[in-house]
Write a structure and sequence with these properties.
Order of helices and strands: EHHEEEEEEEEHEHEEEEEEHEEEHH
Number of domains: 2
Largest sheet: 9 strands, mixed
Structural class: alpha+beta
Distance between the termini: 41 Å
Helix content: 10-25%
Number of helices: 7
Radius of gyration: 21 Å
Number of strands: 19
Oligomer: single chain
CATH superfamily of the largest domain: Pseudouridine synthase
Shape: elongated
Length: about 290
């Protein structure tokens, strides 16, 4: 068969996601025919070449597994956690395949999380060009003005944030290794008022996936986010209890692959649904499900 990029071969074998496979390569943990490969973009033929990851021979491609999990609060969306907190993989009892989260929900957030060992699809879904819509129910502390919500709808400048540097696989972490990201402007966002109250609920649909984006957006207009629950991811709808999961149907997998093709988001409607009465907003919300 034709030679393919090493990170794609490793992801197809279910060893790691495409991004994690790149880290394995640059860390010197991958060899081809006995020679260590550290250059990204290197290619190999999985049928002809002897590929090893961390000294272990690479097996053939795994059968792809696609799971929809209802992540509860108090779990981290990683494979392991240096602080010893429970991870979403602890909830996947009975799943023999090594799957990885697609994107993230932070520790205090809950809702729909996709996990798979299909590295190619995971990369497409998380790539900035995919614009796969993700819908959340969000409870806010205090009541924003309509002008503030309109500001978020059109895109808002988020200041840079300080975060720890990632430690390459097999390396010792360096003390106080930090980086600061640059300020970025968010893409247009759909926001609909669901429940009028002193601490109202909104339905927020994003077309990109920046780190802690919803929390940072509302912090920028001086409102704290109390609760976040993701209820839709592209064609998928949250339909299992907290802590439970299910396998995707063949139809859902096909719809996900179509959604990952880079479709542009639809423009905002001129008549904003958040100005409608609460009863009608609830009815509209129900009509969008299924």
């Amino acid at each position: 068969m034709p030679a393919e990029r090493l990170q794609k071969i490793i992801a197809a074998a279910g060893i790691a996601s495409r991004r994690k496979a790149e880290e394995l390569i640059t860390s010197g943990l991958v060899s081809v025919n006995g020679k260590t490969v550290t250059e990204l973009g290197s290619k190999a033929d999985p049928e002809q070449d002897r590929i090893k990851v961390n000294g272990k021979p690479l097996s053939g491609p795994e059968r792809h597994v696609y799971l929809l999990l209802h992540k509860p609060k108090g779990y981290v969306t990683t494979v392991t956690d240096p602080e010893g907190r429970p991870t979403v993989l602890d909830l996947l009892r009975g799943v023999a395949a090594r799957v990885y989260p697609v994107g993230r929900l932070d520790y205090l957030s809950e809702g729909l999380l996709l996990l798979t060992n299909d590295g190619e699809l995971a990369q497409k879904l998380t790539h900035a060009s995919s614009h796969v819509p993700k819908t959340y129910l969000v409870k806010i502390s205090g009541k924003p003005t309509e002008q503030q919500i309109d500001k978020l709808r059109g895109g808002i400048l988020l200041p840079g944030q300080r975060s720890p540097l990632k430690t390459p696989v097999g390396k010792e972490p360096k003390p106080r290794s930090w980086r600061r990201s640059t300020a970025v402007k968010t893409a247009p966002v759909r926001i609909k008022l669901l429940r009028e109250a002193a601490n109202p609920w909104y339905e927020v649909t994003l077309f990109e996936g920046r780190n802690r984006q919803i929390r940072r957006m509302f912090e920028a207009i001086e409102h704290h986010v109390e609760k976040i629950k993701r209820v839709r991811y592209g064609p998928l709808q949250l339909d299992v209890e907290p802590g439970k999961f299910r396998h995707l149907t063949a139809k859902e997998v096909a719809q996900l692959k179509t959604a990952a093709g880079g479709r542009q988001p639809a423009p905002e409607q001129k008549t904003d649904p958040s100005t409608r009465p609460l009863r009608r907003a609830r009815r509209d919300d129900k009509s969008t499900r299924g």
